[in-house]
C-alpha cells in the first residue's frame, strides 16, 4: 500500500496553489487597471471606483500577496490531505486501473 510523504505532498500543493495565486493576482491587478482606466477615460461610469488612483497601484500588490497567501493555504491543506489519505487508505482497497490497448484504423 502506498503512503504519501506528508511534507513532500504539502510542498507540492504549495507550489500548485502559488501558481494559481499568481494567476489570480494577474487577473485581479490587470483587470482592475483596465476597469480603472476605462472609468478615467470616461468610457464607463462606476460608483465603486474613482478611476486611476493610489488603489490601482496597491492592487498590484496582489501579484506578490496572492501567491504567498495561496501557497500558505495550499501547504496547510496539503498536510491535512496527506495525513487523512494515510489514515483512510488503510481502510480501503487500492484502486486498480486496467488499460486496454486500442489500435486505430
Concise synopsis of the structure shown:
This protein is mostly helical.
List the helices and strands and how they pair.
Layout: H1 6-41, H2 54-59, H3 62-88
Helix pairs in contact: 1-3
SS field, number of helical segments? 3
Mean pLDDT: 86
Q: Let me know the largest β-sheet.
A: none
Helix content: 55-70%
Give a structural overview.
With 105 residues, this protein is mainly alpha-helical. The chain has helices at 6-41, 54-59, 62-88. α1 (6-41) runs antiparallel to α3 (62-88). The two termini are 39 Å apart. The mean pLDDT is 86.
Kindly list the characteristics that best describe this protein:
mainly alpha; single chain; elongated; 105 residues
Amino acid at each position: 500500500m502506498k503512503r504519501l510523504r506528508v511534507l513532500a505532498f504539502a510542498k507540492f500543493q504549495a507550489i500548485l496553489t502559488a501558481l494559481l495565486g499568481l494567476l489570480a493576482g494577474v487577473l485581479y491587478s490587470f483587470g482592475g487597471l483596465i476597469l480603472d482606466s476605462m472609468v478615467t477615460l470616461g468610457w464607463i461610469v462606476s460608483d465603486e471606483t474613482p478611476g486611476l488612483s493610489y488603489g490601482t497601484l496597491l492592487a498590484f500588490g496582489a501579484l506578490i500577496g496572492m501567491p504567498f497567501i495561496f501557497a500558505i493555504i495550499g501547504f496547510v491543506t496539503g498536510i491535512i490531505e496527506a495525513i487523512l489519505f494515510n489514515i483512510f487508505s488503510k481502510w480501503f482497497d487500492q484502486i486498480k486501473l486496467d488499460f486496454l490497448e486500442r489500435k486505430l484504423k
